Backbone:
């Protein structure tokens, strides 16, 4: 559990990332990265800007293919099959100009067998969104909320959430965190990158610290708190001190 | 899944085409009417200008939609949705080729219909004549000429497919991370490079290049038309070979695009 | 979020502490049924694995027991609860005395102050009635 490559016998990792390197021009975004994620955890991916968090998430979700190394999810290389199991919240808004929430909900229902339309409509209502308003006319925070509704309304095996609470107000933040918690199940993993560590660390059980494209810490949160005598937020500030 | 992809590629582009078709049909009905009844030069000149604008807009919207269907939907932020759908790269490319080709064919059909309407409004006395001519042509048709007609349609469809596939491949090359700073020139350059490559292949085989790659002169010139009529058999053979040629290149370009999406995708 | 956790100690230990308090104060009565791990995790806004660990800790101390099919219950053993209540009281007193000593009060003075405060409080509550 504590170390990224040792696993209890008989338990297979949900996500296996072996020796992954990704270079942009001359800069290494990920450097021979190894990381295994087991099912049944909420894992925080923490690191300063440019440490490779978004790059790693793009590789897991299949929007970045130009790298070296091997990545499998549930034993399959990233492709159509894994995309059916992975629910991804990217750090950009991916809607087309013509789309209204109801259009995208219909699209998700069409493509994802694990999409719970009723749940999504409830969330949309709860967050006070207008399902018939053209998305491009919505505010940035509202768009983020809607995108999160879509992503959390899937019963996925792996959730990959890139900064899920970065752009929303504190009230919505609470609701989003409790939604993330309610989506937890023992077979799946929720993988979350965030800068707002102190707000979120209590919902993690595992954290991964990424520094310059390498894993510098991977462990169970309460063990780290016990060993270091400080919160993950405090530890982060110490490890990544400028 | 392919059906659903096609549905959404269609849904994301029908508005622009609907607007263009509407303006074409409106234009061809209204302009001749005004031209016949109004002798004001200024109005007529304006009308001419608007007609020209519609033609240009049709062209721009068609090309723009090809980009929208492929380039924008895959390589812009929209790609985060498109490329995380549980479908294969093959399905994505096939869907986009089908929808693009469908739109181009439909646009061609609407433009033809437009010209027909234009002619009928301009000189209504011509309509019975046109039908008469059509009847004569229908009566003169035999098995082989019908075959030639069908082959011609097939050839044109294959030609459009290939051009779309070529454009998609050029876009995919332009989005390689190594070409990050030269996207637009890289895209244009690779498009013309592929066109040149096609011409090279045609040359090597020794066909009438202009015809096989569907150059504009092939069927429109009087000489070409005469050839067609006098030599139906060779016309059919040329169409068959030409169609095969187009299909071969379509497959090649599509395979290249699929490879790049599968191995080299790199969304910003 | 409304539930705040101190930074130094593991979250599961803070949960154990909170739960013990609820048991000895009677907020969670002896023999009563606990919510599922999932629901508890939601209401305390913590990771379900962390909640599981806290409950296991309570089980180890026999304060909570699990029935295979029906779920988890607070112990029926009132003596055990009383004993723990006593323990916690001792801890509080110990802390109190230490703190009073640190600002220069003798034990006797501290007890007098406690007595005085207690009298005031009972008078206040008497007035209100």
Residues:
């Amino acid at each position: 559990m504590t170390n990224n490559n040792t696993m209890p016998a008989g338990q297979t990792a949900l996500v296996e990332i072996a020796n992954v390197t990704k270079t942009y021009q001359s800069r290494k975004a990920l450097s021979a990265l190894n990381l295994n994620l087991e099912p049944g955890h909420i894992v925080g991916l923490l690191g300063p800007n440019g440490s490779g968090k978004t790059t790693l998430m793009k590789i897991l979700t299949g929007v970045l293919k130009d790298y070296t190394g091997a990545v499998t999810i549930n034993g399959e290389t990233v492709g159509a099959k894994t995309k059916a199991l992975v629910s991804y919240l990217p750090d950009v808004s991916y809607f087309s100009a013509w789309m209204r929430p109801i259009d995208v909900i219909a699209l998700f229902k069409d493509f994802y067998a694990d999409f719970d339309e009723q749940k999504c409509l409830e969330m949309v209502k709860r967050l006070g969104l207008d399902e018939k308003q053209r998305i491009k006319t919505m505010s940035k925070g509202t768009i983020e909320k809607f995108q999160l509704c879509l992503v959390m309304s899937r019963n996925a095996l792996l959730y990959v959430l890139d900064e899920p609470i970065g752009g929303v107000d504190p009230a919505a933040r609470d609701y989003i965190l409790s939604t993330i918690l309610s989506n937890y199940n023992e077979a799946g993993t929720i993988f979350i990158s965030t800068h707002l560590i102190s707000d979120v660390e209590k919902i993690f059980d595992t954290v991964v610290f990424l520094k310059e494209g390498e894993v510098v810490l991977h462990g169970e949160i309460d063990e780290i708190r016990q060993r270091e005598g400080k919160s993950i937020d405090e530890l982060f500030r110490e490890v990544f001190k400028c | 899944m392919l059906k659903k992809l096609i549905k959404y590629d269609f849904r994301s582009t029908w508005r622009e085409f609907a607007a263009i078709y509407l303006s074409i049909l409106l234009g061809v009905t209204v302009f001749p009417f005004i031209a016949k009844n109004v002798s004001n030069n200024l109005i007529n000149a304006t009308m001419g200008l608007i007609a020209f604008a519609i033609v240009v807009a049709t062209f721009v919207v068609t090309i723009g939609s090809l980009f929208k269907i492929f380039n924008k939907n895959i390589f812009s932020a929209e790609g985060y949705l498109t490329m995380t759908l549980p479908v294969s790269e093959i399905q994505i490319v096939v869907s986009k080729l089908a929808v693009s080709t469908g739109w181009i064919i439909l646009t061609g059909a609407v433009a033809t219909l437009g010209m027909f309407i234009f002619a009928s409004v301009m000189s209504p006395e011509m309509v019975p004549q046109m039908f008469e001519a059509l009847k004569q042509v229908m009566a003169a048709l035999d098995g082989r000429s019908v075959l030639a007609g069908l082959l011609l349609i097939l050839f044109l469809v294959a030609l459009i497919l290939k051009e779309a596939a070529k454009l998609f491949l050029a876009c995919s090359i332009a989005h390689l991370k190594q070409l990050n700073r030269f996207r637009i020139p890289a895209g244009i350059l690779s498009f013309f490079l592929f066109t040149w490559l096609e011409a090279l292949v045609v040359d090597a085989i020794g066909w009438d290049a202009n015809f096989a790659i569907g150059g504009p002169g092939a069927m429109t010139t009087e000489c070409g038309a005469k050839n067609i009529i006098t030599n139906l058999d060779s016309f059919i053979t040329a169409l068959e070979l030409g169609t095969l040629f187009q299909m071969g290149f379509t497959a090649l370009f599509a395979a290249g695009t699929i490879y790049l999406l599968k191995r080299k995708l790199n969304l910003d | 979020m409304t539930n705040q956790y101190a930074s130094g100690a593991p979250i599961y230990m803070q949960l154990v502490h909170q739960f013990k308090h609820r048991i000895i104060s009677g907020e969670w009565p002896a023999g009563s049924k606990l919510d599922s791990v999932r629901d508890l995790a939601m209401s305390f806004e913590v990771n379900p694995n962390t909640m599981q660990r806290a409950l296991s800790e309570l089980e180890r101390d026999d304060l909570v027991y699990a029935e295979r099919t029906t779920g988890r219950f607070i112990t029926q053993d009132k003596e055990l609860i009383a004993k723990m209540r006593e323990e916690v009281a001792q801890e509080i007193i110990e802390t109190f005395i230490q703190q009073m000593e640190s600002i220069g009060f003798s034990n006797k003075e501290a007890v007098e102050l406690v007595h005085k405060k207690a009298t005031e409080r009972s008078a206040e509550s008497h007035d209100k009635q």
